[in-house]
Amino acid sequence: MKHTKSQRSNTGVKVVAGLIVASQVTAIADDAKPPVASNDAVETLEPTTVIATKFERDLKDISASVAVLDIEQLQNEGVHSIKDAIGYRTPGVIATSTSGQGGQPGSLFIRGTTSTYSQMRLDGVRITGSNSGGILNFLGANNLNGIGSIEVIKGAGSSIYGNGAIGGVVSLTSEKGEGEPEHKVSAEYGSFNSMIGHLSSKGSQGNFSYNIGFTAEDTQNDSDSIIDGNDFTQYSMYGRFDYQVAEDASLGLSLRGGDAFYESPQKGDPTTNTPQKNNYDYLFGSLFYENKINDLWATKLTFGFSSEDFDSRGFTGDYLGTGDYLKSDYDTNTDRYSLYWDNELQWNESHASVVSAYYEHGAFESNYATNKKRNTYGASLNHRWQIVEAFSLNGRVGAEDHSDFGVEPTWGAGALYAVTESTRIKGNIGTAFLAPGFSEAEFSPGLEAERSLNWDLGVEQDVRGVALSATWFENDVDNKIKYEGPDSNGNSTYRNADDAKASGLELAASTTIDSIRSNVFASYTYNQRALATEIPQQYAAAGIDSELTDQLNAGLVGTYVDQAESYNGNSIPSYVLVNLYGNYQVSENVKIHARIENLLNSSYLLGDFTGPNYYDEVS
């Protein structure tokens, strides 16, 4: 038995099974072997990173706090959504939903900050801007299909990315097709009538490569409130196309779009048994050209475009009294166009610079506020100096000029010292800012940008094959924008309030145990301070992935989330979730997978915004 509050997401045991069929035997044979977990679905064990400097660099040469997630391992675990992939397993980072289950808007908390303080980028293009709805809806709807890498840069190292990078930046890169063409069909069915079907094809022919796919998904979610309807349905597609123009030059196009529908019973009207009904349509695209002109100069030119439509029909969820809810027809449209020019200059073995210039245009339309447009011009310089083999410094400066706001500069610096082959110390300091959003500035003239000074200091140590890391971070935010209340006409107003601070400790460990053909990871985050009460003070994750036979692998992943408090003061209890998964390779081109989510049948909630309205449910 468990209790479900309005705005609560409680999930019972969920059993899922699926089948993957591939038609290209040669290409699949290598993938067919169940991969042993790359210890770092948790932390940065990938050898290279792009997000730290905008060009590929060895991870060991980067001072910034960067996590590179292992997509193959996450898919091996049966993780389906981008939100769940980021999840809780990367220290200092939470991707979850505080408004409901599958399909509901997601939240991104990086180092004690909320969603508005972090950026998301897709194929080098910023896809979140002046209103946080973009990041919330994108996280709620998007799946991992077609994604080749997920990187997270945390804290001071993200200052080169401009507005909204106070907490950090999540960068998604579409997977490039390679090798002989292969075609896959997968189908999955599980609890709560959850169904996912996926078709894909990828490969290369001569100088041309491609990766395309289509996904259909539907679930009734786990809910039994007095209002019927908690469904989520989505049809999505992706495509990436690359052409090798010359040996060191390539042209590419990526597309990602979808049509999502979800119901919100917690925001519905119990007197008519009507849930809120929401539609989210999106299309993101980028056209990019890369050229290594010579040993000194590499250049990258990217044109990005996106369109997001969000329509809501139903009720606000603001409780006024029995049977008395505010009717809400809420429509928004956000269009963005952007152009980025990034250049890497390798002066010599000791000095390298990345120089960037960019333009971004955002247009926001809504039926509840005045339509807004913002043009942004920006530039940044990042320079790295390898003083000796074991010690390097880097410095960063940048500035953005907003058409409706003005100029905001940023700066940063970092250092990396390899004490021994197995011990590294690194630290960063930098500034960042968050400009007022369109809705905040609408009826609050004179708002200033929120500005931050943040730093971190960490150590990485290898002890007999066990990779350990510990990092302390602090982030001081000035001019924090807070809701003031309605004006005489009922319009929402905001003001710059007192300063705020986020600080905490990040720990991670991972190793490979060859004797049992297993990989193990663990991570822990302690938020001494956070910018919102919804962020738990502590959370941790641990898991093991084992290759039991050449055909069978299985694993267990557990997550602990400390208690928190909703913005209205209601308590959000702590909880533990355990997921079990397995994969069996039937033949070279047929694989069966199964997983059990919430193995312990824990009762938990992700958000509680409306008070103690309990409903019973047998799970």
Please describe what this structure looks like.
With 619 residues, the chain is mostly beta strands. Helix content is 5%, strand content 60%. The chain is built from 5 helices and 37 strands. The strands form 7 sheets. The chain has a 22-stranded antiparallel barrel. Strands 5-10-11-8-9 form a 5-stranded mixed beta sheet, with no helix packed on it. Strand 25 and strand 26 form a beta hairpin. The longest helix is centred in the N-terminal third of the chain and has 9 residues, at 133-141. The protein is globular, with a radius of gyration of 24 Å.
Map the helices and strands.
Blueprint: E1 2-4, E2 14-22, H1 25-32, E3 48-49, E4 57-58, E5 65-69, H2 71-76, H3 82-86, E6 93-96, E7 107-110, E8 118-122, E9 125-126, H4 133-141, E10 147-154, E11 168-174, E12 182-190, E13 194-205, E14 208-219, E15 232-246, E16 249-269, E17 274-292, E18 297-321, E19 324-346, E20 351-366, E21 372-388, E22 391-402, E23 406-420, E24 423-434, H5 438-441, E25 450-463, E26 466-478, E27 481-486, E28 492-496, E29 500-513, E30 518-529, E31 538-547, E32 552-561, E33 564-565, E34 571-572, E35 575-587, E36 590-597, E37 615-617
Parallel strand pairs: 8-11
Antiparallel strand pairs: 1-37, 2-12, 2-36, 3-4, 5-10, 6-7, 8-9, 10-11, 12-13, 13-14, 14-15, 15-16, 16-17, 17-18, 18-19, 19-20, 20-21, 21-22, 22-23, 23-24, 24-25, 25-26, 26-29, 27-28, 29-30, 30-31, 31-32, 32-35, 33-34, 35-36
